[in-house]
Amino acid sequence: MDNYQNLSKVWQKVSTPCISYHKKMKKTIILFVCLMSSVLLLAQDVESFVNKQLETYPQSRLLDIYKSCFQDYMGAEHLVADRQSVKAYLDQELETTNVDALMPWHYEFCGIDGNYVRVSLKVIKENLITKDMLLDAFIRSANERSSEHHPSLPENGRVVTDECEANGGKRPSVESWRERWNVIIGVIDQMGVNLPDYTKDKLFLDSILSISKYAISHSPEYREAYRPHYRIVERGIFEKEIKPLLESKMMVVRMAEIEVYPQYLEEYLKAARNVGAKSVEKEPGVICIFPNQVKEGENKFRIIEIYRNKEAYEHHLTTEHFQAYKQGTLHMVKSLRLVDVSPLDVNSMPMIFNKLK
Known about the structure:
Elements: H1 2-56, H2 62-74, H3 83-96, E1 107-109, E2 116-120, H4 122-125, H5 131-143, H6 153-156, H7 163-166, H8 174-191, H9 198-210, H10 220-226, E3 230-234, H11 235-249, E4 252-260, H12 265-282, E5 286-293, E6 300-307, H13 310-318, H14 320-329, E7 333-341, H15 349-354
């Protein structure tokens, strides 16, 4: 028994360091896997962003990809010290910009993670929000740097430094941005995308970053093709203050894809025509409810619905004629799919409807 106890003690002394070593190795391996996964995730995100950028803006150069990624990470290029000069520049831009020349979107998220949002001046031109509201959101976004969207690596698995938190929520340093851009450009190099002046743009970006500069303009090709007129707003500010207003005032456009059971075809045709006509006649906020029958499938329908805003759409759902349609056709409908869409050219709509007169 004594020999057994002695052997047990010896084994504990020998095995304890081994167990401790293996635990440390396990932690190291887990950390390494997490780091590799984060790099892979970033690579996938970069590829997805670049492909989307080139699909949406085929005239883009590397400069434009860089600018969107920079805005996503750093926000606006400069702090705003003089509100009046910024307001004067916005006034001038609004005065010289034709709403028809602007991109069709009202806003788009920047770069890979969407920490910041490009808000088009169209939202002012179309009276969706006031000039002062956008100006205020832009200035606060430029001057107040929130660390909320830039957590450390273990929290979101992305290669983002803790520079923002280390600086008390202020703008990350040029060095941290340069490190991030090096990762992004490495992925783009591997993608082998065919961008005009790629080598030239890459060398130019390297040269400005090497002297701690970072701000650039869109490429001439991008400006000529897309007329970018927007202001950068931090995502939290945008989603809390601006987005709800836009959604409440923007037109709601959707396509209802409906299939009815063949035995109810005639009944449904009558009900669809009736609700469309009554909605347009009785509801000021209903611009169009236009039922269409699919030629190659007579029991399938596509209904184009256009409402003046979200409030008009929500009111439509409460009306007597819609509720009668909904309850009366519930047993007739085999499938229903609602597809929300964004009009590419809202300003052409009056011309379309005027041609029907």
